[in-house]
Amino acid sequence: MGFREVMSRVVEEVSKVIVGQREAIELSLATILAGGHALLEGVPGVAKTTMAKALARALGLEFKRIQFVPDLLPSDVTGTYVLRDGRFEFVKGPVFTEILLVDEINRAPPKTQAALLQAMQEREVTVLGVTHRLPDLFTVIATMNPVEYEGVYPLGEAQVDRFLAKIRMGYPTLDETVEIIDRSWLAEEMPVEPVASREEVAEARRSVRSVYIDRNVKYYIALIVEETRRHPAVRLGASPRGAIALARLASALALIDGRDYVIPDDVKKAAHAALDHRIILTPEARLSGVTPERVVEDVLEKVEPP
User: End-to-end alpha-carbon separation of the chain, Å?
Assistant: First the structure.
């Protein structure tokens, strides 16, 4: 399939400025191709914002950024009507783009978060009773700091569930840190060139829908999701939306790898991004140090692949 070469070029182009986060790059790209939205979680300084910007540029897509702050209003996201020359005219907000980076999504109040999440779900915004359609390739890449709890408005489980994937970006290794220092000036210049076109991205999205998933692999996905609900540390496991997210993300990863069919390894690679944020632990499990990541690992070890 021709998409493998194109998407490989995209990953390599983004890797010019992002060091040691190849899995996060591929999962973010797969989320875009699957038509979903990504939540990037990591401490400040691990290049979440830079990666989103580089991805948009490499894909040749329009990019806008919103810094979420406590006094941000829904109209600052969606847009509003203004009076010009005696008539009201709609001024589009930054949500009218193809790749929208939302920095620190949990810093805005719930009403503003809800306006964004509605746009994510319905791919349209309604202002003063008039509905405006968002671009076909509209994708949100949101960032969140996992360790800061002051001055934030935590996302509810139902809100987090709207993200197709939650992708964690951790600290680099020692050698990677040295390479990051070497490339620090280069990263500021953002030497990323468009290596794909809007048409190719749209075609790749359509192709993800036709990636073949064997019935045995579908059962494998369903068993994984079912097992998250049976785990003794879990109060609420992944819902059917989680199964759909896992299947779609695995299909996009298969396409990136140059295949038109899903294999169990695609499912395993997508499992954490698709399921971790959809698992709610029991209070006892949280107190004992169990994490959703550990639950998914336990499930993957228990469920035999076809």
Answer: 24
Say which DSSP state 164 is in: S
Please state, in angstroms and as integers, the Cα–Cα distance from residue 176 to each residue in 17, 24, 47, 87, 172, following that order: 12, 15, 13, 56, 6
User: Strands 38-41, 130-133: parallel, antiparallel or unpaired by DSSP?
Assistant: unpaired
Identify the helix (H) or strand (E) that includes residue 25: helix 22-33
Task: Tell me how far CA of residue 255 lies from CA of 172, 221, 263, 282, 294, in angstroms.
Answer: 27, 18, 11, 37, 28
Is residue 125 within a helix (H) or strand (E), and if so which, with residue range? strand 124-127
Are 233 and 282 in contact, with CB atoms under 8 Å apart? Answer: yes
Query: Which amino acid type is present at position 36?
Result: G
Q: Look at residues 305, 246, 303 and name the one whose alpha carbon lies nearest to residue 270.
A: 246
pLDDT in tens, 52-83: 999 999 999 999 999 998 999 999 999 988 88
pTM for this entry? 0.91
Q: In this structure, how many other beta carbons lie within 10 angstroms of the beta carbon of residue 242?
A: 22
Q: Are 276 and 292 within 8 A, CB to CB?
A: yes
Which residues are paired to 40 by β-bridges?
143, 167
Instruction: Let me know: does 278 contact 242? Beta carbons within 8 Å.
Output: yes
**Region of residue 58 (left: phi > 0; alpha: psi -120 to 50; beta: else):** alpha
CA distance 277 to 167: 9
Distance CA(48)–CA(19), nearest Å, equals: 12
Question: Binning pLDDT at 50, 70 and 90, where does residue 189 land?
Answer: confident
